[in-house]
Specification:
five-stranded antiparallel beta sheet; 6 helices; 7 strands
Length: 174
Amino acid sequence: MTTGRENSGALSAGICEFPTLTSAAFDWLARAQAEPRQAHQEWEQGGAALLPLGSRFNAVRLSAPLVHASIGSTDLDTVTTALAELLDGPVIHNGPQRTYHALVEPYPPAKWGYAGFAPMLGIGQFLSVPAADRTDPTGLHWAVQPHTVGGLCAVPAVAVLVDLGRQRLMGTLR
């Protein structure tokens, strides 16, 4: 089975050779950079690409305690399954930093009502985005991989998750 990693011509052409819709989804993410080939090279060489936010997508930074409170579990399998069902879009987990980043459509951060609990990152900011093969629950990895071109978490769904976690952490909801 070929993964495309052994095809250096794929990188020079700026095309991700991972099979299935995953390749198209990662090509779409790579196009957040002015030179998509740069993102593919970063994924190939270092396992993560630094992508600018605000044009193709934004990210909502979610602390692990907030996510765990919202879902009612700290078990990574349970959390991953719940995030996939509740947000229906890509989510990055950074285990050492105890954060999750939900990728959302570009949205004005000033209109995001949960900045104190889960900041929305956008124009002028960057996010380390793991390569497609980074799914092991160590370091920077995908909790929920992108599965369609342009498929992102809906801002209202992320808001519901944040509000529920906030209420549980503050003790106003049991």
